[in-house]
Amino acid sequence: MNGQKTAASDPYFPANGDPRYRVHRYELALEYRPGPNRLAGTARLSAIAGRAPLAEFHLNLAEFKIGRVLVNGRVAHYAHRGGKLRIRPAKPPAAGAAFTVEVHWAGNPKPVRSPWGGIGWEELTDGALVASQPVGAPSWYPCNDRPADKASYQISINTPSAYTVVAGGRLLTRTTRASTTTWVYEQSAPTSSYLVGLSIGMYQTVLLGEPGLGGVPQSAHVPAHLLARFSRDFARQPAMMRLFEELFGPYPFGEYAVVVADEELDVPVEAQGLSLFGANHVDGVRGSERLIAHELAHQWFGNSVTIADWRHIWLNEGLAKYAEWLWSERSGSRTAHERAGVAHRLLALQPQDLTLADPGRKLMFDDRLYQRGGLTVHAVRCALGDAAFFRMLRDWATVHRGGVVTTAAFTAHVARYAADPVDELFSAWLYEPALPPLPEPPPAAPAQPAAPSVPARPGYPPTNGEPAGRRRWRG
After folding, report:
1. 201-236, pLDDT tens digit by residue?
2. 16 Cβ partners below 8 Å, 6+ apart?
């Protein structure tokens, strides 16, 4: 089979994803046994062929044992090597035709190798956790692993009844038979493969806040011994949700859940409708509150509005970083301009070799990308003024809800709200590695729309402080 890179392949991960077709729905039926770390599954994919008949195509899947592969209900030839499941249908789907793929697989799931270590399915001391950014999804299910290929998901998982299963989306049913329980989740919103989150563990489930009529249901799944600290650390998440809905538009999904694993994680990580934290992010003194804001903001920036490929990752991380600063500003701590000044001073002391709009795979998770991304958004705010900036930001999240974007789309969008040209601003911040001067602050006027009332609090973690831990996931 032809394994050559196509023009539409992701430039950072050309072996991941196949642009010759797109998937619009995944239905996963899984059985997991935590003790032996044994996973067996059936995946049914509903897809549409691209502009040419599909004599062959591929899915990404780690080194599991394949039972069988069907295309449109007929047995297909396949080869499975190097994380690719290459499929030759008995009758190739025609150009533009809808087709189905069914894959049966089983084995012991484990993280897939990446430049940042193992990513994806992680066996915990008692349970499992999945955090797939950027290429970990094939560690547990067959997928067209490219961020632009967004689909709806139904995930059914059968596991021992002592465990709670949490996935992004709405819990449809929970059925117990004998000693096992089957959990069925539905995520109807378009979702990238790397954003399909999952956690299996011994959790207590609690509700955060009172959503009220039209509010967003927010739940948390936490080890019992961490509940007291968690209740203080996450107490202001409902206020964050209200603020971000006012600034960015309605929350883009049906519900929001957080999981606290009973393990240390290097950083939290976002999934669609779900964020995953480590026990080290729960200290009882709100020491990780900026990270709570960061992961929540990703539900708009990264999850609902998704980058076309990984060159544009600054759009995810820069906007989520700036959301941290907006929460700080509105909750009685430092202003966004003060936060920007701290970030600028830190960046000025570091190497100037990062091009934000195309950082390269090696630097795509460099902390400088997060900080410079936030500074770029702040520079846009300073150039537009608060009224135009917040209109721009809300419209960006609303117009592209559920869609796929690029850096060029963002710069064109911003230009429509600017009284003066912004070409030089973006050239300096996005395409030149040298750090531009800190922009002048916007006029001292209340930002619109107004924030919900949030009590002030002392202290705030440093802008670049990320807790250390043994797992190196990025959020």
Report:
1. 999 999 998 777 678 999 999 999 999 999 999 999
2. 10, 60, 135, 138, 145, 146
